[in-house]
Specification:
single chain; about 450 residues; mainly beta; four-stranded antiparallel beta sheet; about 10% helix; elongated
Length: about 450
């Protein structure tokens, strides 16, 4: 028996490529899934398995049921409120719900791209298994797009959850690199669809994460655009107030503001300290609206690289150009870097908005431009009060802050033209040249003439 075992051991050994061969750069490829998709299994009690063509890596962090394991971050099982059980089987990954398979339910198990082999080659494609434990085979497919309203850019990798009306647990997926999603097949029903900026990548909607929702009827499959934004129950407050010019100031608030709100004269109060004298307010507008009203027209600006000496002094032209530069719309912030170990579906390396839907809204703003009727007093202090300012969720508050106007800088001393500027270098032509050397004869004559005392008679010869 021992001899037979000895003979079988070499036969079961895995054949490895010879050392020194070409490196393996191919990512792991899914060969099969079990059970088959859209199968009806009333008494199913096993695992959903994804089998690969080579041994895959379990990752640096094992799956412990907390959702922090490397493989757990790549599996979405729905509908289920808990982190699924994810097991590593060398060349396969097994998934099952922690509470067990429920009867007469439709389950959807999605494996995201990002599974690595032992050489750290990561897969670029995922797989989805949908089956039932006795319920009818689903046919509904929901499609749409998610945007981040703060930046007005597609929400790359946003969590999408479709909850049947009256239910707190639904079917989940993630948006691709362009913010688009396709969720299905799921049971035919009316859904409340949520788009969430999943900051901690746990595939759950957190209480502080920005989101948006839309209702989709049972007779529709197209989801309206989802524009995610923070849902704060407390109104905004003023964080800083800084002078913009001699009669304007920028008010920075702590939250994105309701883009539909407009302020009249009764909602803005400005008082000078210390006597609390009221200051008349001309306008309080978002920066984009204020810029469109107060930016000088294009024909009044000088051509690039050429000063307009016929319209204004040189200093005025320089100031106008500076206003024009500051009025330009800043470029959109790049999408947040992808967390390690998380790979989104879609084209690898594609930018967040490449080929995706175009945003139909302007980005939210958390700033306002305040303009007053009289110039700010250098070194003065003013109380700014906004009554009923609303955030994008509709929560209102009265925000107050103090504006401290910088002191006026003294003008640099000008040189006295009457005395001349002793510090300015003189031209070479104005400098005094050294006296030229006298001729030799003249020097002798001067030498003899310098001694006026006559010589004695005995020395005259």
């Amino acid at each position: 028996m021992l001899a037979l075992t000895t003979l079988l051991v070499p036969a079961c050994a895995k054949i490895e490529p010879p050392p020194g061969g070409p490196p393996d750069l191919a990512p792991p490829r899914i060969l099969a899934t079990a059970p088959e998709s859209l199968a009806v299994l009333p008494h199913f009690d096993g695992e959903v398995r994804f089998r690969f063509d080579e041994v895959v890596s379990e990752g640096a962090t094992a799956s412990t049921g907390t959702g922090s394991g490397d493989l757990e971050k790549l599996v979405i099982l729905s509908p289920s409120p808990r982190v699924p059980v994810v097991r590593w089987h060398r060349d396969a990954i097994g998934v099952r719900p922690r509470e067990g398979w429920l009867p007469n339910a439709v389950y959807r198990v999605e494996l995201l791209p990002g599974v690595a082999d032992l050489r750290n080659n990561r897969s670029q494609k995922g797989a989805i298994v949908t089956f039932t434990t006795g319920a009818p085979v689903p046919t509904t497919m929901l499609t749409g797009a998610v945007f981040d309203w703060t930046s007005a850019q597609p929400a790359r990798g946003a969590l999408v959850e479709a909850r049947p009306l009256g239910d707190s647990v639904g079917y989940r997926t993630v948006a691709d690199s362009a913010g688009r999603f396709s969720l299905g097949p799921i049971p035919h029903a009316a859904y409340m669809v949520y788009g969430v900026i999943d900051q901690n990548r746990d595939f759950r909607q957190g209480p502080r994460e920005a989101y948006d929702s839309a209702r989709v009827g049972a007779d529709s499959t197209a989801v309206p655009e989802l524009w995610t934004f923070p849902h704060d129950t407390a109104g905004p407050r003023i964080t800083t107030v800084t002078t913009l010019d001699s009669m304007a100031a920028t008010v920075q608030l702590s939250q994105p503001l309701d883009p539909r709100q407009r302020f009249d004269s009764t909602a803005v109060r400005v008082r000078a300290l210390p006597d609390s004298a009221p200051i008349a307010v001309r306008s309080l507008l978002p920066p984009a609206v204020d810029d469109s009203l107060h930016r000088p027209p294009a024909e009044s600006l000088p051509a690039p690289g050429r000063a307009d000496t016929t319209r204004a002094p040189r200093d005025t032209v320089r100031d106008t150009a500076r206003v024009r530069d500051t009025a330009r719309v800043p470029p959109a912030a790049p999408p947040a870097r992808q967390p390690p170990g998380v790979h989104l579906p879609g084209v690898p390396g594609a930018p967040g908005a490449a080929g995706g839907p175009k945003p139909s809204r302007a980005p939210l703003s958390d700033r306002l431009v305040l303009r007053v009727a009289t110039p700010w007093k250098p070194g003065g202090r003013y109380v700014i009060e906004l009554v009923g300012v609303r955030n994008v969720s509709g929560a209102a508050a009265t925000a107050r802050a103090v504006l401290a106007v910088p002191e006026a800088r003294p003008a640099p001393a000008r040189p006295d033209s009457a005395r001349g500027d002793s510090t300015r270098a003189r031209p070479d032509s104005a400098r005094r040249a050294p006296p030229a050397a006298a001729p030799a004869d003249t020097m002798r004559a001067d030498t003899t003439r310098a001694d006026s005392t006559p010589l004695p008679p005995d020395r005259r010869r």
